[in-house]
Every structure is written in structure tokens, then in C-alpha cells.
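Project standup — Tuesday

K.O.: blocked on the structure for the chain from last sprint. Re-posting the sequence here as requested.
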Amino acid sequence: RPDGESKGDEFWPNSAAALLNGVILHLLYKHDRENRPLPCPTDIMSFLSSPDKSTEELFTDMRDYPHISPEEFLEVPEVGEDGKPLKDENGIIKRKKNPLKEIYGEYIKDFRPFAHKDALGIKVKSIDEIRVALQQKIDKGEKIQWNSVDEAGLSVSAPYHMLLSHPKVAECAANILNGAQQTTASIMQTAQTSLAIYQDPVVQNNTAVSDFAIRDLLDPQQEVSLYHCMEVKDIAAVKPIARLFIQMICSKLIRDMKFETDPNKPAPKKQRLLLMLDEFPQLGNMKCIELALAICAGYGIKVCIVCQDVNQLNKEYTKDNSIGSNCHVHIYFTPNIDSGGATAEAISKTLGKRTISTTSHSDGGGGWFKGSDSVSQTGRELMTPDEVSHMSSEKELIFVAGHKAIFGDKLRYYEHPFLIKRTQMKCPATSDTVTRVTNFEELFQVHAADQEAKEEDRRRVLEDRARKAGLSY
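H.V.: unblocked you, prediction finished:
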């Protein structure tokens, strides 16, 4: 849920999330094909709230939209400015790629419509067979009806528009079209409610493009500090944006981290990152943080979680949460007085007990110089909950995994000149060290390295298979 509240039936937010995934995918392809700016959350809201189309018309258009061009499906040769085919370094003619086939493989599951007499008129079993048959028709001078409707707006029997539509977008649209009207309306309303914040002009302007790429935060070639500040009066309103932003950072950084497994190659240099989350419970339940804490340290990421007391965490994550157990260092200041004393009691239990020896004398009724002494040992809390609650504000308790607790002095930044100087640094108006993503060209450049890495992995797999089969690749 955008606000982190876990209440009510999960069907509606899950269905709305699936709808938004399909719409985002649709708008990315649509805006790229139509040479429009990068879509932003406001565009998603505008799409779902289209005033000139009914829900059925909206999702029918979405289902049948040509997300790739006929040239991409046919994989025609690429040509230069002189009109001649382009060739690669091996002298092989370059061809346009079908991105849907590269991502999903055989994305057409039912080939029966293509065997109809109004279509190919022959049985086909793969996308490549369809592509070859269509190319033969084109070579004969036949016109292919790629759209789902003709110039008069009437539906056509030829199923060729299915070849150009994104399969996952089509599935998303079909789910909405095939659902009950009341169910569809509720899902739409849930999605629109989640996006309402993006109708604010200030939010719209600040989310229209990306002023930096998340990968910049772990780029060893540059040092970047990112501050995400919220006014107290705006916390409730912008919390969904903050939650989405932090979740994107965690998932993107952890997903994209790479380790060098070849011992002959140097390990990639890491840029360490500190994710400081002040007033963390105010963000609501963020499962991504709870899951990431256990593994993020291995990716060069440290998370510092700041909260007022244990009750705040327990309220959002229940008493059985794993946040505390996945933190290597715990620092406690004097806890505030709460109704159950949960924080003070938790600190006292974490400190453990110390052994106290007591000696008692028994004279056995025989006078002062007779009798015996007995020594007993008992356990006593190192600090009782009451002592923890009354701990000096100048002190702090530090717990480091594998070490004894530290009872230390609190450092106040305003008492140390070298820390005061840091607070006096002015914030730069703009930054020239980050990767801006303001259009599709810049977006493709950001992902070019990832695409090359995937191509390299694919090539190595094919080479390994060929080598094991005794073939050359």
C-alpha cells in the first residue's frame, strides 16, 4: 500500500499495482514511438482519468496499441543515410531487433488466428514462421493490415496487430476488460487514489524527469550525497512518494551490484553508501528495508535507522520483527517514559545480568567466635529498567555484535568545532556530478551498460553450451 498501512482486503491494492505496472509499460512504449517526453506519474493519472474515453475504449486501445513497429517485427535491415544496408564488424548486415521476442521469446501463444483464410492461410508454429510468411506477402506487393481497425474505424479480421502489441500490456488490459464492471471500477478507483498526490503542481514538476540516476550513489568515480527532506506539515501527504523513493533505492542498488568471481581479475571498486533514515517509523511498514538489512552490508550499503523508542517499531513491524536482530550496532539514549516501559525493559534485558556475591554468617548458637560463613551468588541486572530510564542525558549505551556493552559519553556536535564547520557548508544549487535522465535517449544510455552485460552473459552461455557439445560458436 502507498501509505504502508496493512488494513482491509489486499486484493484491491494488489490489483491496482498490477494495473499500474501494465499502464507504465504501455506509456513507456507509446511515448517512445510517438516521440513524446518520458512518461511520469502524472501521465499515468491522466491516462486512467481520460475524460473522452470510456473504460472499455481506454483499455481496448491499450490492448491493441502497436508497441513495436512492423519493421521491428519483420527485422528488416538497418540502412544508413546513403540508403545502403549497415554491416557489423564481421560484415554481416545489421537488422532491426524485435524487442518483444528478445524479452519474452515466443510471445504469441495461440497461432490459430493466423491460419485463417483472411490471414496467412497456412499453419504456423512460431513467430519466425509468421515473419517469413508476412515478408513473402510484402515481397509480392500485398498490403498488410497491421492495425486492429481499418480507416473507417471498423474491426478487421486479420490478427496481425497482435504481433505488434506488448504481451504483458495486452494481458493487463484484457484483465480489466474481462472483469466485472463494479470490480473494474473499484480497481481503477484504488489506482487513482494512490496517484492523487501526483496531481499537485509542485510534485508534478519535481517528478517529471529524473535529475540523477540511482546508480550514481554507488559510483566509485564520483561522490554523491542525496538529501530527501520533508516538511513536518507535509509528511502525511508525501509519505507515499518517500516510501516509493526509498524502496527504489534499495531494490535498484542491491539488484545492480556485481561481484567479480574470476580470481584473475581485480574485484570491482565499491563506493560505500550510508542510508540514514531519520524518524524511520514515520514511513510506515517498509518490508523492503526489513529484508534488505540482512544482505545490504555485503553490497557496500549500510543503513542507519533512527526512531524514538521500541514501541514505534513494534507498532509498524510487530514485536517479532527482524530489524533489531539484523543491525550490527545499537545505540540507545535515555529513553522517554512510556506507559509499559517497553524501551527501558528491552535495554535492560539486552544488557544482561552481573553476578553479586553475598556472605552470611551463622553462629550456630555458640557465640561470636563459633559458627560458619556461607557465600551465595545471585544475578542482578547490569542496569534495571528504572536505572535505564534515569540514565544521564550525557551518557549513551552502545551495543556492538560480539562485544560487551559500552557505557559511553554522548558527543554533541555543537561542542566540537570540526563538526560545527560541517553544518556551515552551503547546499549547492545544482549538481554537475550526476546522471540526468530527461528523455528516452538518456534513458537508453543509462541502461546501455546493463544491456551490454546481459548480452555478454548470454554470449558466454552459448559459447559454453557449444563447447560442451563439441561445436564452434
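K.O.: great, moving the ticket to review. The longest strand covers residues 353-362. The chain has a mean pLDDT of 85.
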